[in-house]
Amino acid sequence: MKHVFTIFLSFICLLSVAKAQITMTSTDVNNYYSLGSTLVSHQDTLTTSLNIGAPGNNTWDFSNLASHTQQLFTSVDVASSPFSTDFPGANIVLKTPMAGMGGVAVDYYTYANLSSGSFVTLGGAMEYTYAIYLIKTKMTNTPGNASIVFPATYNSQWTDVFTFTAGSTMNGNPMNSYSESHNVTYKVDAYGTAKMPGGDVLQALRIREDNKYIYSPDGSHRRKVSYTIVTKSGFSVSITAVDTSAPDNGVIAVTKVSWTKPGVVGVEDETQIVSNYSLLQNYPNPFNPSTTIRFSVNDNNEEFAKINIFNSLGELINVLNVNLQGKGTYETRWNGTDINGKTVASGIYLYCLNLGNKVLSNKMILSK
User: Fold this and answer.
1) d(CA 291, CA 285)
2) Cα angle 107-112-114, degrees, rounded to a multiple of 5
3) Model confidence pLDDT, tens digit, residues 54-76
4) How far apart are CA 231 and CA 227, in angstroms?
5) The whole model's pTM is what?
6) Is residue 112 packed enough to be buried (19+ CB in 10 Å), middle (13-18) or exposed (0-12)?
């Protein structure tokens, strides 16, 4: 859940530049929550140290970060989401494919409120049936975690106090629960340019988060220090320090590094078009054992395109690379196997076209 909360910082990225400063307002970020927009979160599980820059003006380089695990997030309608009544005041919700007890596929919904003054994460929930058991998991921030206060610019800071509660029920009976009392200090302590995975060089802010909290089951006092670098185009990099007393500059040991890149369209069964690129519906669909994926390029300087295929849990299944030779329509085939050549199960899959800084996506059905 904490990882899901961190994901929201990646949306707070439409930044306006004024001289040497970058300022964030609620208007800047509102477009990132349009219905059907997508975000893929990548985690680099092998990086153990990273240069976080320093307070003030910076040039960051994150181009060497890898993607070892991935998770897909899709913005959906709040009113039609299953837990809207559990989180009154929510005007943003993200749906995330996950695995429940026994590996049951389930969608997790995270709720938030974006206003002119702040971005507040309210919580999230999921519910599914495993064998004869109805399982519901709910996580709540009370009164809500204000992870950004507007307007935010270099040297702005704010604090937030809230209680995080997590619990699960089985057939209506409590299974487990715990809570944490958080006192968090945020500061926008750096700005500059960041080279992101893929090579994009973008304007960025660094938000330092110092989170002191009490873990209720044993009453222990804990602390976490992390940094999030957010950019104008929607990229973000989140870094958690190993040592909470480590300096706020230079190379530090890290426990977790993740980076995100938002998409621009949803996963409707139709041709997806953005600017000079289009992604067509695969055919046949449903299919067995293979299908053709087509896309068109009207104006492009890229040498190749990449198509990532995800399963319903948001896990990366396979990657298809297509060499490009100028504008035109291209196609490639997927034979229903994973990256190791193993045949995958029937189900709904998502295919995402990555071309430069553009991401288009559609869904397809493998039926055996």
Assistant:
1) 7
2) 140
3) 999 999 999 999 888 778 888 89
4) 13
5) 0.68
6) buried
